[in-house]
Amino acid sequence: MSRAHSPTTPESRVPRRGDVIEVLVEGLGPGGAGMASVAGRELAIRHAVPGSRVRATVTGRRRGRLEGRVLEVLEPGPHSVAPRCDHFGTCGGCAFQTLAYPRQLAELQRSLVSMLAARDLLRDVAVEPVQGCADPWHYRNKMDFTFSNRRWVEADEPEGARADFALGLHVPFRWDKVLDIRACAIHFREADALLASTRELALEQGLEPWDTKAHTGLLRHLVLRKGFRTGEIMANIVTAREAPEALEPFAAALLARHPELTTIVQTVNTRAASTAIGEWERVLHGDGVIHEVLLGITYTISAGSFFQTNTAQAERLLEVVREEAACGAGDVVYDLYCGAGAIGLALAKTAGEVLGFESVPAAVEDARRNARANALANVRFVLGDVLARLAEEDDLPAPDVCVIDPPRSGMHPRMIPALVALAPERIIYVSCNVQASARDLPFLVAGGYRLARIRPIDLFPHTPHVECVFTLERRA
Ligand SMILES: C[S@@+](CC[C@H](N)C(=O)[O-])C[C@H]1O[C@@H](n2cnc3c(N)ncnc32)[C@H](O)[C@@H]1O
């Protein structure tokens, strides 16, 4: 059992904010935090690896549970392995890389079981083992890096090292600081060199990074994407204004160093909010899109549209959804929150008709283009807020199967009665945030559905996130 050791925190009293304690991390909790128990209370510690003993500080309390963060790993635990990445410990990106991969999968499954059991969802159904990645390294086909004028200075750096330019990832709990990423063990292999060149050229050409406080500077984000099955690579440079006199030579120099870039896009975001989603785009090289192939279907992906970030596992996900949807030639399928149509197009090969619903115009354009390019004539895409469009469109055929793949926040609460009212035979809920789906599922069960299968797939190795396919069948 875990014990509190700090002289400032006697074991018998509930720790308070700021207390430092030593604990054994016993498992994973909601949101992927490591869970320990202290003085009869649960303590959720972000980025703490199960099996390890850590020194942690208590940062607060939420919903009756204490929260904390790791200060030091005292003992790594029986399933610990050496980290691959030099940035491990500073970058918050893949907190689980010191946990052996098979153990990561077991822990993800264990946390899913406890989360769903707590909602009384496992009476008649078991959680299947998490399907792991054959190669859990360099799997990401997309990375979003941030430019900043506040670089995170590492402990071993010489005095006076330049700190007014960074291109990398935010340091956990320090949204004002960006860690320069030199190498990353999970993004696609060409990305390290692209990142280094972008940084060097921006400095050489005197392009200023965005200042999130003063709202000055030009360069905001660099989003790198690759089609693993086509080899096409996109660099999307997100800027605060158009500035063609600066961007055109910058893109030309980047291309001269990296002819492997098949397209370079500029996305302009003049708003204060720090996001890679912009107001308009300019294509600086190539045709502004890349392509990826999943299950024999070619997908066009533009800078603004969502696409699963792990190509190999996205294909596995599509196979699972296809098995669960079990569509026949007479079936009408709704693909709700369809993005660029990845799921709907995969189902269109066997279904009678597929209708996709999506709010991002670029994604719908991609989806339509994808349907045409793959000669799938039985697919339609409806642009707009899914809830509003379902309410407005009164001549749609009733669905036999609904696939829902909402964003991380889960479904809008009003979406659940809307889905139940559609009364499909099967609902396939694809979730990248099992906490949100665990909240939504009891309402679907109460609405007349039986949870028939739970099939998790690891799309995000070395992180506490897991994708999960829940199949619900309408009770007779
Ligand atoms: C997790 S992604 C799923 C995309 C797609 N199913 C796939 O596998 O590529 C969620 C999608 O929902 C879209 N979205 C978010 N809120 C929406 C809403 N209210 N109505 C319609 N689409 C929405 C997002 O733009 C995004 O493309």
Based on the model shown, name its key terms.
476 residues; alpha/beta; OB fold (Dihydrolipoamide Acetyltransferase, E2P); Rossmann fold; 3 domains; 7-stranded mixed sheet; 9 helices; 30% strand; disordered N terminus; binds S-adenosylmethionine
Structural commentary:
The protein is α/β, with parallel strands linked by helices and 476 residues long. It folds into three domains: 1-79, Beta Barrel (OB fold (Dihydrolipoamide Acetyltransferase, E2P)), CATH 2.40.50; 106-135 and 295-474, Vaccinia Virus protein VP39 (Rossmann fold, 3-Layer(aba) Sandwich); 142-293, OB fold (Dihydrolipoamide Acetyltransferase, E2P). It has nine helices and 22 strands. The strands form four sheets. Strands 9-8-7-10-11-12-13 form a seven-stranded mixed sheet. Strands 18-17-16-19-20-22-21 form a seven-stranded mixed sheet, sandwiched between helices. α2 (191-204) packs across α3 and α4 crosses α5 (342-348). The site of S-adenosylmethionine has 20 residues, from α5 and β17.
